[in-house]
Amino acid sequence: MENKNKSFTIIIMPEGVKGKYRTIELSKKTIKIMASAVAVFVFIFLFIIIDYFNVKSTAILVKKLENENKTQAQKIVMLEDTMKDLNAKLTKFEEYKRKLNIIAGLESPMSLKEIGQGDIPVQNSVPPTQNNINNSINLQKKIKLKQPDKVELIKNKANKIEKNLDFLYNYFKEQQKILASTPSIWPTRGIITSTFNWRIDPFTGLREFHYGIDIATQLGNPVIATADGIVVESAFKKDFGNYVAILHSYGFKTIYAHLKKRLVKVGQKVKRGDSIGLVGSTGKSTAPHLHYEVRVHNKPVNPLDYILENDWIITKKQ
């Protein structure tokens, strides 16, 4: 109840009739102080609870960003490896394309230039602090910007090669006879000991131009025709020893010298891959090897510019 002094009396009654009761008298001012204290306590309690959940949610977000950054870093490393493999394959395709253009006698309208490449730095995981949330987001933005740029360069490079190869494929599709008549495979397997270039003659010691390639290999290894054609020479000469010359269509001619044995005769038609002789050391030869020449309209050219096989590598001896 409220008295004249504007105070409140609280009566506490025990159970039963005989029990003594107690009274607590509180002034209006005291009640206001107590109410304010309770309100402040509730406010502080709510602030602590809200702050706790904010800190917890921030920690969860930072942890999530850490995991995402680790995953992104792993993906970047994998992507870098994939890009290196793609670039290596594209380089092989470029060489293949170059040889096809030489065979076709074409200046490619899709010629490629070197494309600069850069590396994407792999970032470490972000420490779990509030300030690094923005750093994590910025890292992901950089990744999203840099990776597509680099991938786009490789895609453009591949598209240019694909267009050129498609053009060449259509060209060769209508001229299969030209391709069949082009000396485009290895005549035997071994080590190149002399290339299409100037050299010192092993017999005279004089500088002279070598108009073919020498492939050192075991005595008796098979020698095969590198294109379809007809045998126009199968004989013995002082310099060449046993040799075979095959005339192909469209001005191509191939010569195979220093043979141990000739397996074809003049006038015989041969297909690419047919055995025409065995590796030997006849004529002007210091050891078993094959001297192989390619001529176009009787003009010597570099045989390596016409060999398309990439599944087998000949080691060059300097």
Topology:
Blueprint: E1 7-12, E2 22-27, H1 28-104, H2 132-173, H3 176-180, E3 191-194, E4 197-200, E5 207-210, E6 213-216, E7 222-224, E8 229-237, E9 241-247, E10 252-262, E11 269-270, E12 275-279, E13 289-296, E14 299-301
Antiparallel strand pairs: 1-2, 3-6, 4-5, 6-13, 7-12, 8-9, 8-11, 9-10, 10-12, 10-13, 13-14
What would your notes on this structure say?
It contains three helices and 14 strands. By secondary structure, it is of the alpha+beta class. It has two domains: 80-179, no CATH class; 183-305, Glucose Permease (Domain IIA). The strands form three sheets. Strands 3, 6, 7, 8, 9, 10, 11, 12, 13 and 14 form a ten-stranded antiparallel β-sheet that branches. Strands 1-2 form a two-stranded antiparallel ribbon. Helix 1 runs parallel beside helix 2 (132-173). The radius of gyration is 44 Å and the shape is rod-shaped.
Q: What is the count of distinct domains?
A: 2
Distance between the termini: 116 Å
* C-alpha Rg (nearest Å): 44 Å
The CATH architecture of the largest domain: Distorted Sandwich
Largest sheet: 10 strands, antiparallel
Care to count the β-strands?
Answer: 14
Overall pLDDT metric: 79
Q: What is the structural class?
A: alpha+beta
Strand/helix succession: EEHHHEEEEEEEEEEEE
Share of residues in helices: 25-40%
| Share of β-strand residues | 15-25%
CATH topology of the largest domain: Glucose Permease (Domain IIA)
Weakly predicted, low-confidence segments: 108-128
The number of helices is: 3
Please report the first level of CATH classification, the CATH class of the largest domain.
Answer: Mainly Beta
Instruction: Label the overall shape.
Output: rod-shaped
CATH level-four homologous superfamily name of the largest domain: Glucose Permease (Domain IIA)
